[in-house]
Design the sequence.
């Protein structure tokens, strides 16, 4: 009885339809309106993040500007989300924070996939002692709560935004290793794989050219769902002080800084939290939709 | 036989965890000894103490010392308090355990019924609502929810105390769990005080797991309800009510048990932010404070303890699962 | 401690001492606190609930470093002499003293019948022991007493004690405000293994978590990260306890200032910490149930610089930093109040200095100074400097952030680092590890210029305190300070100190920000706050504070 992966999962049975694979999938996707909503929200976030320097109302406020004469002002027409404890426009910093959060998701998942998938592939392909050793290591990492281990690594590396992203990645690969392992075990019996091996293809070729491409769908689903988790953990690490340091416009850090002025100034802590919620929700909706799109795995 | 195999597996994982933690603690650049001793200590003193602590030996020897120390409860000196980290953890562990236990109970007490209702009313209004709620639930950053609840309930409405575990002077601990201790002593005022303090933190801690429990129970209930014996019972004319709540649920609650093993690591991770926001005197808050202080021994010590707990709980849950469901136990016999 | 109490204490010496004598015999067999003539039993007298954010790591008076540890020591322990804003020094446990011909030996006659909390009487033995203990165990306060010759502490009889200094020091009496008298017998009864021969560990472990004093309060409960509870000592001879004076003081520790503010508003606390952000205090003040005390303090704020590390080893760079410091914004917006500071010593301590510059906030002047420095713009840009701000404080962080932002505009890379106080003080002890900049404020424990000025010469180098990391040395300044310290006439000495200050400001080893306005939020029913009691933290001697429990704003616990 192995522990399930960290991603939220759902065993709902998908409704079968009898058209071709792609149009069948798209129809399912479109039917799942929430997934579409998620995709749209995500695109909006990416859009805002990319265009932040041009559409943010006070671009100088992202880092090195302080305006203590207008600190902690409530939301108004001039500052739609109010100003923080150094007088900086919160809406502007929120937009820039989107960049950092999306970057977190990217870095974390990048590292996780690059470490985890090969490990799972190799373990599943070779079997025997290699498999045992690799999966034991995976089990060790799986037994540890992600946030706790990532915190320990981030602190030891030195509290920094990049270090925290790397730390999470170094912990998160285990889910991908398991998925890749499971997929490899079932896929390596497939006809085309056996054929390739009989024809003398190298192990590397079989693993990365035959098996890997056929596990992209469950990997994509997991990537989408895990992106949300990566952002939640990344902002939590910055909130605890082991990630971004001031004056970086990182959402978790903004909440931590704004905390000192509660309950009178509620806006510095409220809006970044809503932003995190919106982005994570959009990844979750998208992930759910992707899972439907690709069928059940 | 299977038990031994699983036990050895667990021990192996624990060894792996300890190696990982040891690597973290010894990889530190800079001199932990000098930092711990403070100013005014000469270089010779530092070298002497390093030798005393065995820091000048080879890595494998240091690892053995490290493990020996751990098993004796010595996790290294903390920089934030003049005590061994192990001692501090022992002091604060009951607070965290109480919080996590209460949160787990809340998550199961509400999650299971939600999941059942969801499964039974599949694709109905309640189902969709609860699916949305659980989807939303896992999307909120927990530390933010904690802050907002603290702000709203504690600071604005002044309904609950906003921080801490108790407003009363500490009493002699029996179990270390304030709720249990106060009941055992029939001290209702203390019970009420402890309850008021634990309520919101436990709620916050339970939100994500609750959503997960709901989804899991729903999924496995759906599975169960699709099984032949259910259809048979329906055909025979057993009332729906009985089917749902007696048979299906009983089988589905096995998966609720798995959920405990699965949720525990999640909760212990979230405990860091919840304990920090509510200034809960547990090991996670100690760990969170240690982060700011760059107290490596403390952070790694807490991480180690948390991981050990998770591994052991997982092991126990798996054993329990096998014991409750004989099919699994018997089918796995060689 | 009002002057009325002092005169009645001094004038009524005979009565007091007789009462003390009578009580002494009986009290020796009783535990402290509950017996004897009291005006109000401690249980009926209200408890003063004080919310603070810093941990009280130790109850040992020689180890008090942060605000609250110092406040606690001032309430639990007593001193030979007592501060007064006008008269400077008043007799206290020492009822009189004499200075020898060469000005180096002080002989004190002790008041008799002064009790410790456990009933034993204070004798010269205790005084000698306390001084020896402090010198032997070291620590931040012992640093002020290096001038005492440890071999020449003489106690010819139970009521007489003399200290001999290595060099004469006109500020010695005022330094004694920091010297807390501990109960020798009690400590030795609780001593443990240690390197000090017959004295073992000098009671270091015992005093960390227990009290052995003679002050107006004793410690009855202590958990270092949660609470220190003080209970009134009814037989304290230097005060008359009234029904409104606190019977207990509960110093409650909440790491989050937000918690303190909230609990103050909900009536669970009576006094909140000074570190609560000024914006929050302003909000609190809008509620008529609360008052925010605002008193200018002789508390100068500095940004000290590490003069030994490039590029701050160049005076022009330092002056540029001073010109980039926006004092007005700090005072008006970040701190909510403050007054001008000219040079390192506040005017309350050293007044009448002329010709002392102030570096105005002017970015053009800053750039002009940088141009004169030996570093090119490109070289300057390569340095990665750090400005340390005490981790728990938003105020320090914001001041640091403001300066860092302005310095970045000059092309100097500065990062703000939130660092724990203990880590800051440890780092300052070596020139390689001392931070480039540290924001801090000085609470002068000795209201004499020498206390602050000592860090502006080699004798202050490497002290475990932010200015110990300045590593600044100007032989002219050192000589002027030395001369000033050797003159007993304050007016004469002032001339030397003022000249030293003038030169220091020219060399600009630190940014001299402003004098603090201390802000305490508290329930309106608490009275007793004062601007200045002659030395910090004697204005926080809580036996003279009063709580009006009949006020509707007061909410007792439970």
Sequence:
């Amino acid at each position: 009885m192995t522990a399930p992966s960290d991603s939220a999962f759902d065993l709902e049975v998908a409704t079968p339809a009898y058209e071709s694979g792609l149009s069948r999938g798209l129809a399912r996707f479109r039917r799942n309106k929430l997934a579409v909503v998620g995709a749209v929200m995500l695109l909006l976030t990416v859009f805002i993040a990319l265009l932040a320097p041009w559409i943010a109302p006070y671009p100088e406020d992202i880092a090195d500007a302080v305006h203590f004469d207008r600190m902690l002002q409530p939301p108004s027409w001039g500052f739609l989300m109010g100003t923080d404890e150094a007088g900086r426009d919160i809406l502007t910093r929120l937009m820039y924070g989107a960049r950092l959060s999306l970057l977190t998701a990217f870095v974390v998942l990048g590292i996780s996939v690059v470490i985890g998938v090969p490990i799972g592939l190799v373990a599943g392909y070779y079997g025997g002692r290699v498999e045992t050793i690799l999966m034991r290591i995976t089990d060790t990492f799986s037994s540890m709560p992600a946030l706790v281990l990532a915190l320990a690594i981030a602190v030891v590396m030195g509290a920094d935004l990049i270090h925290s992203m790397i730390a999470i990645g170094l912990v998160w690969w285990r889910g991908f290793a398991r998925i890749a392992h499971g997929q490899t075990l079932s896929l390596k019996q497939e006809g085309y794989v056996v054929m390739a091996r009989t024809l003398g293809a190298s192990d590397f070729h079989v693993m990365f050219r035959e098996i890997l491409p056929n596990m992209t769908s469950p990997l994509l689903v997991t990537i989408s769902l895990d992106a949300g988790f990566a952002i939640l953990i990344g902002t939590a690490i910055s909130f605890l002080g082991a990630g971004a340091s001031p004056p970086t416009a990182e959402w978790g850090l903004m909440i931590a800084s704004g905390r000192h002025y509660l309950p009178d100034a509620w806006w510095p802590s409220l809006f970044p939290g809503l932003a995190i919620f919106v982005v994570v929700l959009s990844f979750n909706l998208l992930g759910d939709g992707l899972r439907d799109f690709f069928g059940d795995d | 036989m299977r038990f031994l195999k699983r036990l050895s597996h667990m021990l192996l994982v624990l060894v792996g965890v300890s190696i990982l933690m040891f690597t973290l603690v010894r990889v530190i650049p800079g001199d932990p000894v000098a930092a711990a001793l403070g100013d005014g200590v000469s270089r010779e003193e530092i070298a002497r103490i390093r030798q005393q602590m065995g820091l000048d030996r080879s890595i494998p020897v240091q690892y053995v010392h490290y493990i020996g120390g751990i098993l004796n409860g010595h996790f290294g000196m903390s920089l934030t308090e003049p005590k061994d980290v192990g001692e501090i953890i022992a002091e604060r562990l009951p607070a965290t355990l109480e919080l996590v236990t209460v949160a787990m109970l809340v998550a199961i007490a509400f999650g299971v019924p939600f999941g059942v209702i969801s499964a039974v009313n599949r694709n109905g209004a309640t189902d969709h609502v609860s699916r949305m709620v659980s989807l939303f639930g896992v999307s909120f950053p927990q530390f933010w929810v904690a802050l907002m609840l603290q702000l709203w309930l504690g600071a604005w409405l002044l309904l609950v105390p906003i921080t801490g575990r108790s407003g009363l002077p500490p009493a002699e601990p029996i179990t270390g769990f304030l709720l249990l201790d106060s009941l055992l002593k029939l001290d209702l005022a203390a019970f009420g005080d402890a309850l008021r303090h634990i309520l919101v933190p436990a709620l916050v801690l339970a939100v994500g797991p609750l959503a997960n429990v709901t989804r899991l129970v729903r999924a496995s209930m759906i599975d169960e309800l699709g099984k032949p014996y259910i259809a048979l019972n329906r055909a025979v004319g057993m009332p729906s009510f009985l089917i749902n709540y007696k048979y299906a649920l009983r089988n589905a609650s096995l998966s609720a048990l798995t959920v405990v093993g699965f949720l525990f690591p999640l909760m212990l991770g979230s405990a860091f932010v919840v304990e920090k926001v509510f200034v809960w005197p547990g090991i996670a808050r100690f760990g969170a404070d240690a982060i700011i202080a760059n107290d490596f021994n403390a952070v790694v010590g807490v991480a180690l303890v948390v991981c050990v707990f998770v591994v052991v709980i997982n092991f126990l849950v798996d054993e329990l699962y096998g014991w409750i469901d004989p099919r699994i136990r018997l089918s796995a016999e060689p | 401690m009002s002057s009325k109490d002092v005169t009645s204490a001094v004038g009524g010496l005979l009565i007091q001492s007789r009462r003390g004598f009578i009580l002494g015999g009986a009290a020796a067999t009783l535990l402290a606190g509950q017996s004897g003539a009291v005006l109000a039993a401690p249980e009926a007298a209200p408890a003063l609930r004080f919310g603070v954010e810093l941990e009280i790591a130790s109850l040992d008076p020689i180890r008090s470093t942060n605000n609250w540890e110092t406040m606690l020591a001032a309430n639990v322990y007593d001193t030979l002499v007592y501060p007064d804003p006008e008269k400077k020094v008043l007799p206290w446990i020492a009822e009189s003293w004499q200075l020898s011909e060469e000005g180096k030996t002080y002989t004190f006659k002790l008041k008799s019948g002064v009790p410790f909390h456990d009933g034993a009487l204070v004798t010269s033995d205790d005084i000698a022991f306390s001084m020896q203990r402090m010198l032997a165990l070291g620590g931040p306060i012992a640093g002020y007493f290096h001038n005492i010759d440890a071999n020449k502490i003489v106690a010819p009889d139970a009521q007489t004690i003399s200290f001999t200094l290595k060099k004469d020091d006109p500020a010695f009496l005022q330094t004694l405000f920091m010297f807390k008298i501990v109960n020798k017998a009690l400590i030795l009864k609780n001593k443990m293994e240690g390197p000090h021969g017959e004295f073992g560990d000098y009671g270091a472990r015992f005093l960390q978590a227990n009290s052995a004093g003679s002050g107006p309060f004793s410690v009855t409960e202590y958990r270092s990260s949660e609470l220190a509870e003080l209970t009134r000592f009814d037989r304290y001879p230097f005060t008359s306890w009234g029904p409104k004076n606190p019977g207990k003081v509960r110093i409650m520790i909440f790491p989050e200032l937000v918690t303190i503010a909230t609990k103050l508003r909900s009536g669970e606390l009576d006094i909140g910490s000074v570190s609560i952000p000024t914006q929050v205090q302003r909000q609190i003040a809008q509620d008529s149930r609360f008052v925010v005390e605002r008193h200018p303090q002789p508390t100068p704020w500095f940004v000290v610089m590490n003069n030994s590390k490039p590029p701050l080893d160049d005076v022009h760079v330092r002056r540029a930093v001073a010109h980039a410091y926006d004092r007005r914004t700090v005072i008006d917006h970040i701190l909510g109040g403050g007054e001008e500071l000219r040079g390192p010593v506040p005017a309350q301590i050293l007044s009448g200095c002329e010709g002392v510059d102030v570096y105005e906030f002017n970015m053009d002047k800053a750039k002009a100074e940088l141009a004169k420095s030996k570093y090119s713009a490109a070289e300057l840009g390569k340095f990665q400097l750090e400005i340390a701000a005490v981790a728990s404080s938003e105020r320090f962080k914001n001041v640091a952030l403001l300066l860092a932002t302005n310095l970045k505009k000059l092309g100097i890379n500065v990062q703000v680092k939130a660092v724990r106080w203990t880590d800051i003080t440890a780092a300052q002890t070596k020139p390689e590890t001392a931070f480039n900049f540290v924001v801090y404020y000085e609470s002068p424990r000795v209201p004499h210029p020498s206390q602050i000025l000592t860090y502006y010469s080699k004798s202050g180098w490497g002290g475990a305190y932010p200015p110990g990391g300045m590593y600044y040395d100007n032989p002219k300044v050192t000589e002027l300070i030395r001369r000033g310290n050797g003159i007993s006439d304050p007016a004469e000495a002032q001339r030397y100190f003022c000249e030293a200050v003038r030169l220091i400001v020219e060399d600009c080893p630190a940014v001299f920000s402003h004098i603090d306005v201390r802000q305490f939020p508290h329930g309106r029913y608490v009275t007793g706050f004062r601007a200045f009691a002659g030395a910090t933290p004697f204005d926080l001697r809580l036996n003279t504070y009063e709580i009006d429990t009949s006020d509707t704003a007061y909410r007792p616990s439970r």
